[in-house]
Amino acid sequence: MYEQKIRKELLQWEQSLLKPPGMVEKAAKKLSGKINEKIPERVHNIITGTVKGIVKTSLFGAEFTPNEKVSYKVSLADRDKRADEVISLYKKIAAAEGAGTGAGGILLSVADFPALIAIKMKMLFQLAHVYGFDTHVESERLFLLYVFQLAFSGQDAKPAVYGIVRNWAGRDPLALPKADSVDWEHFQQQYRDAIDLRKMLQMVPGIGAIVGAWANYGLLDELGTAAKNSFRLRRLDTLS
User: Fold this and answer.
1) 184: nearest Cα among 141, 145, 222
2) DSSP letters along 173-222, please?
3) Structure confidence at residue 210 as a pLDDT band (50, 70, 90)
4) pLDDT-based confidence at 175, cuts 50/70/90?
5) Which of 138, 170, 147 is nearest to 225 (CA)?
6) How many domains is the chain partitioned into structurally?
7) Does residue 162 surpass a pLDDT of 90?
8) Furthest C-alpha separation in the chain
9) Is 135 a domain residue?
10) Cβ distance 45 to 105 under 8 Å?
11) What range defines the domain where residue 189 resides?
């Protein structure tokens, strides 16, 4: 049965997601911290301002609401197939964006940050509709921000965020987290830490285009996996 197969996949994903950081992860975090110190302050300011703007737009605007209608009476297998198509499309879009800005050096690489976050949010909103969750509802838009946070949090922060995502379906709607309950400063720092190494390399002359495409493709792949599995969890909860 397809649903049983997916439950096993989700269990494996959960174990991988929540495993304690190993030596490689710790070394990468240390390196990221050093790189973080070398990134120009204005780049940090752009990231911070962009994240804040995206958060506000996601919660209170309609900019990212997709034209694709919410899919209701669709099997999980068909939802997964459609989700793979959406993720593949946005990975290609992000890679093209990264290659173009990476080839232009540091100035265009800085410009890539807002565009990349917008691409990510558009993908999340479309995936929500694929899995039958209406982003016109505020709680669904807030859920997407937790999915975003889950994808780009450090290993020490993932368990808490995953707990919120995992138990979303079983909560009383009135007990769901509100926008003002999210630590957005922490949210921004986690995101910056997650992308610093890859995006810093994008600014290196001569390899920027290649690294930009690789970085953006990988970041969309990570977010797509987190989103797809988070929505699968909620869909399976409705079948329980």
Assistant:
1) 145
2) GGGS--GGGS-HHHHHHHHHHHHHHHHHHHTSTTTHHHHHHHHHHHHHHH
3) low
4) low
5) 147
6) 1
7) yes
8) 53
9) yes
10) no
11) 2-6+66-239
Is there a contact between 92 and 224 (Cβ–Cβ < 8 Å)?
no
Euclidean distance between CA atoms 218 and 224, whole angstroms: 10
Quick: pLDDT tens for 89-127: 999 998 887 665 544 444 444 555 677 888 899 999 999
Share of the chain above pLDDT 90, in %: 34
Question: What is the gyration radius of the CA atoms in the chain, in angstroms?
Answer: 18
Q: How far apart are CA 19 and CA 72, in angstroms?
A: 34
Question: What span, in angstroms and rounded, lies between the C-alpha atoms of 57 and 64?
Answer: 8
Looking at the domain assignment, is residue 70 inside a domain?
Answer: yes
Residue 23 resides in a domain: no
Residue 117 lies in a domain: yes
Helix, strand, coil content of the chain in percent (nearest 5): 80, 0, 20
- pLDDT tens across 11-44, in order? 999 999 998 776 766 666 676 666 666 667 777 7
- 72 Cα distance to chain centroid: 23
Whole-model pTM: value is: 0.83
Altogether, the residues listed in the chain come to a count of 240
Pick from 109, 141, 132, 66: which is nearest to 207 by CA?
109
How is residue 132 annotated by DSSP? T
| Residue pointed to by tokens 């737009």 | 57
Beta carbons of 66 and 131 less than 8 angstroms apart = no
